[in-house]
Amino acid sequence: MSGDDDKSKKFARRDSRHPQLSELSMIYEGFEEDITVRPPDLTPHGMFINTSKKYPQGAVLKLRFRLSRSGFVVHTRCEVRFCLRGVGIGVEFMDISPESVQAIEEELGVEA
């Protein structure tokens, strides 16, 4: 197996992603800067966020976002899993409530 194959498996998505948010803000823990961005992709487990700001892998962020169709507001912490400099970051949700996961699944039409 080549190194590229190892990388693609390491960063393989476990869910297909869908654009479903009307707004998102995030705060890098330890800094009081609030950043508003447009996220393109969402799953019940995480999302990819378009941002030109660089965050280190493992950084913990606080997220707040509103689902487009239902209007449900999700508050959660997440961990940066990878960063594409100048493009965005892939994050995995941590400490997300069961109600928030259910709302995301319903928004995406995911069967539980």
Terminal Cα span? 34 Å
- Give the SSE string: HEEEEEEEH
CATH topology name, in short, is Thrombin, subunit H
Going by CATH, what is the homologous superfamily? predicted glycosyltransferase like domains
What's the domain count? 1
Number of helices: 2
- Secondary structure category: alpha+beta
Give a brief outline of the structure.
The chain has 112 residues and is α+β, with helices and mostly antiparallel strands. The chain is built from two helices and seven strands, in the order αβββββββα.
Overview of this protein structure:
By secondary structure, the chain is α+β, with helices and mostly antiparallel strands. The protein has a single domain (22-108), classed as Beta Barrel (Thrombin, subunit H). The protein has helices at residues 3-10, 98-108; strands spanning 21-28, 34-36, 41-42, 46-50, 60-67, 73-84, 88-94. It has a seven-stranded antiparallel beta sheet with strand order 2-1-5-6-7-4-3. A hairpin with a 3-residue loop joins strand 6 (73-84) and strand 7. Residues 1-5 have low confidence and may be disordered.
Could you list some keywords that capture this structure?
112 residues; alpha+beta; Thrombin, subunit H; seven-stranded antiparallel sheet; 7 strands; disordered N terminus
Produce the secondary structure layout.
Blueprint: H1 3-10, E1 21-28, E2 34-36, E3 41-42, E4 46-50, E5 60-67, E6 73-84, E7 88-94, H2 98-108
Antiparallel strand pairs: 1-2, 1-5, 3-4, 4-7, 5-6, 6-7
